[in-house]
Hints:
CATH superfamily of the largest domain: FAD/NAD(P)-binding domain
Number of helices: 18
Helix content: 25-40%
CATH class of the largest domain: Alpha Beta
Largest sheet: 8 strands, mixed
CATH architecture of the largest domain: 3-Layer(bba) Sandwich
Radius of gyration: 26 Å
Number of strands: 20
Strand content: 15-25%
CATH topology of the largest domain: FAD/NAD(P)-binding domain
Low-confidence stretches: 1-32, 385-394
Number of domains: 3
Amino acid sequence: MKKWMKWFLPVMSVLVLVMSVVFRYGVGPAQAQETLNGSYEGVAEGFGGDVRAEVIFTEGVISEVNITAENETEDIGGQAAVQLAQAIVDNQSVNLDVVSGASVTSSAVLAAVTAAIESAGGNVADYQAEVAVGEDEERATQVVIVGAGGSGTAAALKAAEAGLDVIIIEKNGFVGGNTKISSGFFAVESSFQEEAGVETTVDEAVQQLLEFNNYLSNGPLTRAIVEQSADTVEWLDSLGMSITLQEETSQKAHEGDPYKAMSYHKYDDTDAGFEALYSHLNDLGAELILNTTFTDLIMEDGRVVGVICEKADGGQLTVMADAVVVTTGGFGGNQEMVEEATGLSIMTSLGVPNNGEGLTAMESIGAINQDAVPFLHGAQLAESEVTQDSDSETLAGYSNSPLTQLLMSPLLWVDSTGSRFVNEDVVYDTAFWANAAYAAGGRYYIVVDEATLNAYTNGTEMELSFAGPGPNLDEGDFVALAEQAVEGGTAYKADSLEELAEMAAMDPTDLVDSVASYNTMVENGVDTDYAKASESLLYGVAEGPFYAFDCRAVYLGSIGGVRVDEKLQVLDSQGQPIPGLFTGGSNAGGYYHGEGYPPYEGLASGFAWTSGRIAGDTIVELLVGEGE
Length: 628
C-alpha cells in the first residue's frame, strides 16, 4: 500500500525570501542569526520510516527546506511534507500545526527540521515564532459538501449538473479520500457485464446482501444502492472515471462467482479519473476548497443550515447552505474511536486517516450512530517499535519482503493462546481472512519450522493468495529473512515449542497440542477440525528451530454510520429526516451490519459512489422542486 517517492520543494529566491521575512516580522528570525549559512540535515521517524529534512540557511534566514519522505504515502504524507516545508519557509517557524489527516508525517517533518536547526548550531527558539491566524470568512451557497471522496464527489456532480451552486470542502490537499486508493466498484446488471456475458440480477444481489447481514441491515437502502449501481458505474465511466469489468479475480475463494467476483468493475486510473471529474465540476461552476477541516454543523429552527470549518491558516470558514452533505469518510484514523468500537488496540490501520469528525458532528445534533465499525480487510505482518532506533528492518507490512509469501499461505495459524482457530484457507478471501484475524483478538501467529522455510526458499508448491495487494514474489533465503524478522521484533524463534510459546506469551500446552494435532492432519491429508482443503496441508511443524510470525488484522478506515433512509437523508431518533442534512459513504449506516464486511469485491467503493449520487439526486429533487 505504500508508494516510494521523494519530495523536494523548488529552489526559492533568497532575496525574495529575506524581503518577505523582513516585511512580516520587521527583522529576520528573532535577532536574525546571521552566522547561520549553508545546508544542514535532520532526521525523524515518520509513518513508514525516516523523514529527512535538508534546511538551507542564508544569513540566518531559512531560505529552502527539502523533505525526503520516501516511505510516506504519496497523497497523504507526501502532500503534508511539501505543504509544511513551504509553510516553514514562509513563516520562518517550526511552530506550526500538523496537516489534517497526516499528523504522524507532519510531526516528523517538524521534528526533522528542528533537528537540522540544532545541527546548524542555531537557537531553535528563534524559529518558533507564533504564526498569525488567518481572517475568518463567511460564505453562502445552495449546497455545501464536506469531504471530497467518492460519495462527496458524486453528490457534488449531481447537484452541479442540475445547476445548483456547490461548494466542496476537503481537509486534505487532494481529492478522492479512501475511494482514490480503492481499485473497483461493485455493480450488477451493468452494460459491462452484459457485454462480457456475465448474468446477474438486482433481486439476487439484494437477497444475498440481506442474508449475509442476517436481515439486520436496511432493506430499502440496500435495494436503492443495488438498483442504481449499474447506472452509477456507467455515469462515472462517461464522465472520465474509466472503468473495466475485471476478467479474473485475485481472490481464489471468489472464482466463478458472478456476484463476489464478476460484479467488480475496476478503475483504470483513479488519479486520472478524479482529475476528469473535478475538471467537469469546475466547468459546471462548483468550487473546491482544500486544506480546510470541517468542525461543526449549524442548526437554526431544527434545520441544518450550514457548516463551520477551520482553514489551513487557522481562520474560521462558515458556509451557509440550503443543503449540507457530510461525507467525511468515517473514523479509521481515530484510534480512540476504533478501540471503543472493537475493544482492540493492536490492529493495523491503512488508508486515509479520517478522524470521525463528521459522525461526531451529526450525532451532536440528533443523528443516531447505527453501525459504524472499522472496515476489516485482510491482515499483515506486524509492525514493530523494536527497530525504530536501529538499522534493522522489521520486514513488516503486506508486500515489502518475500516473507509475505508466508503471510499469503494457508499454513498453521494459532491465536494468542497458541490454539489453532480457523480454516486457514480464509486467506483466499480478504474479508473472511480479516474477520478470522479479528475474531482471534486482532492478532495471530504463523507457526513454521525451518524445513518449511527452506521449502519456500526453493520455491513452494503452496498456492499463494493474491487477495489484497498480494505477496512479494521475489526469491529469497527464507531462513535469513526469518532471522531478520526475529531481530526486528516481528517474529520469534526457539528450539522447542514450549520455549517459543513462552517468548510469544502463549500457553505452552495449547501450542504443543495444536502443533501435534496439525501434524497428524498433514500426515493424513484430512483437516478434522476446520475442513481445510487437503492441498493446503503441505507442511507440518516437525523439527526445530521453530518460528512464529506475528500477524495483525488490518482495517481500511471504517464502514457504517448514522441512520439514513433510502434517499440518504439523515434520520433522528424518531426515524424522521433532519431537514437540510444528508450523508453517504463511510458516514451512512444500514448497508452493513456488525464488523463482518460482506465478501463482494468493490462493495464499499460502490456504496460510496452510489449513496453520494442518491444524496445529490435527493437534494436536486428538494431544492429544484422548491424553486418551481
